Amino acid sequence: MSDETTSPDDLFHEMAEQGHTAAKLDPRAKPVLTVEDLRMYFPVKAPGLVRRTVGHVQAVDGISFQVPEGGSLGLVGESGCGKSTTGRLITRLYKPTSGSMQFGGRDLATLSKRELKPVRRDVQMIFQDPYTSLNPRHTVGSIVGAPLAVHDIVPKNQIMPRVKELLEVVGLNPEHYNRYPNEFSGGQRQRIGIARALTLNPRLLVADEPVSALDVSIQAQVINLLQDLQKEFDIAFLFIAHDLAVVRHFCPEIAVMYLGKIVEIADRETLYATPHHPYTQALLSAVPDVKQAAVGGRRERIMLQGDVPSPVNPPSGCRFRTRCHLAQDICAKVEPPLLQIGPRHKVACHFAGELGKAPERPVTTGLLGVDDRGNPDASSTEPVDVELMTGSGYEDRWFDVGSRTVVSG
Ligand SMILES: Nc1ncnc2c1ncn2[C@@H]1O[C@H](COP(=O)(O)OP(=O)(O)OP(=O)(O)O)[C@@H](O)[C@H]1O
Ligand code: SF4
Ligand SMILES: [Mg+2]
């Protein structure tokens, strides 16, 4: 059943009725995954017989973040910004161009195929499209049981009982293990995909837009299921989505990506109440029930101008500058660092500020040793705290954009 008129408001109303409160942040949780300066450049080949490399798609370009143990980080941004590539790097479907991904004391980025095999059990992926991600010629039993067979975890005769148990956990009839994917609805298929991802008891699940192919009413059910599973099995999530409404419910912490970079990352309350990046502010203005600060007494949708530039040849300096209403000279010359500006808040913008309260002068000049136009400035103070601009986690001090000083928590 498709219901075109159901809004995100209705979706959350439905969730609330089912008794699921938004997931909470545990600031003391240790990271299960630490990603540092991760890059993925896909070669662009010239047509013809000699397929020379003529450029690179900079799909992911130097991102750093952490996913807390048993917690969930949301990853949001427009189509093509590098979300799926990030997920595929973490699950090592791709080998990164550079950077590191620390998980369980090992760097996933550098592990060989053989070394990866045991780690794959701990890091699983749920795919966006429940129609193409399941092999139509295999029964549900063999799809969900395949990882057990591949990893040789339980004796053959115990695979089917385990499969039935998993089907029950995700709310499917265990007696349907002999059926084929086309005998199930979209929501049920996604439950099969979730059961498959759970088969090996993962510690981290990368969920790549797990509900965006589903009707809104089914989306709520699947999100609730994921939340139940997270609590029950203590699984950490990297939850990829277009929809800021869905991420808000599931993720106590959210990173916003634009053209291969993270432009803002914060705990849910901070990101939704006081976003400091013009791109986040524009994305949030499209979410109907977010009480974002009003400009001039009005709360308007901020329309993004123009198209997303090509990741083969991204704009110099700040990648968002070609669509940013605040852009000035410095934005074309100097890339803004992802700077910690609060206890759990980082932003990459020379003019970081609350909606409608952007500073007139760039806030980053003293830190970067440049003048207001982005030219080197010998009289400027030395860069203060490199950690505040490069770390994957949070420091207990940060750069206060109002006073332009480093303050302690
Ligand atoms: N295997 C590949 N080879 C070359 N380019 C790729 C490959 N995979 C992705 N890209 C490019 O990398 C960029 C990021 O793609 P990605 O799929 O990660 O975006 P996304 O944020 O997941 O988008 P969507 O919301 O549409 O799923 C895009 O420009 C895409 O065309
Ligand atoms: S750095 Fe400049 S162009 Fe980039 S988001 Fe900030 S104001 Fe806009
Ligand atoms: Mg994608």
Task: Give a quick precis of the structure.
This protein has 409 residues and is of the alpha/beta class. Helices cover 28% and strands 21% of the residues. The protein has an eight-stranded mixed beta sheet with strand order 6-7-8-3-9-10-12-11, with helices on both faces.
What is the topology?
Blueprint: H1 8-17, E1 31-45, E2 53-68, E3 72-76, H2 83-90, E4 98-103, E5 106-107, H3 113-120, E6 123-126, H4 140-150, H5 159-169, H6 186-198, E7 204-208, H7 216-233, E8 236-241, H8 244-250, E9 253-258, E10 261-267, H9 268-273, H10 278-285, H11 329-333, E11 339-342, E12 345-347, H12 365-368, H13 387-390, E13 397-400, E14 405-408
Parallel strand pairs: 3-8, 3-9, 6-7, 7-8
Antiparallel strand pairs: 1-2, 1-4, 4-5, 9-10, 10-12, 11-12, 13-14
Helix pairs in contact: 1-7, 4-5, 4-6, 5-6, 6-7
The chain binds adenosine-5'-triphosphate, iron/sulfur cluster and magnesium ion.
Low-confidence stretches: 1-5
Give the SSE order as H and E letters: HEEEHEEHEHHHEHEHEEHHHEEHHEE
- Spatial strand order of the main sheet: 6-7-8-3-9-10-12-11
The span between the termini is 50 Å
Please supply descriptive tags for the structure shown above:
409 residues; alpha/beta; Rossmann fold; 2 domains; 8-stranded mixed sheet; 4-stranded antiparallel sheet; 13 helices; 28% helix; 21% strand; binds adenosine-5'-triphosphate; binds iron/sulfur cluster; binds magnesium ion; ATP binding; ABC_transporter-like_ATP-bd; transport; ATP hydrolysis activity; nucleotide-binding
